[in-house]
Amino acid sequence: MNALHPWQLSLATFAGWINRHRHDQNVRLQRESRILTGKPRGKQIRFSD
Question: Residue 45 in contact with residue 39, Cβ under 8 Å?
Answer without folding.
Answer: yes
